[in-house]
Amino acid sequence: MSIRNWKKSLIFDDDIVFNAIKKLEATGFQIVLVINKKREFVGTLTDGDIRSGILRGVSLEAPVKKLTNK
User: Inter-axis angle of helices 17-27 and 47-55, to 10 degrees?
Assistant: First the structure.
């Protein structure tokens, strides 16, 4: 995936962790960029962040903002 397609890695902070995993898989990137409803940058989320969150008991149905690096 070309870096020019970085906008495909955007995800809203109230979207669920499962959708972030699907986005990581679809884009081929190792990171998604988390934004709020105003389309302001909130932080980042990586596959490692998701794995750590799952090990801590965070649900795949939880909002990504629970795992976002601000």
Answer: 150
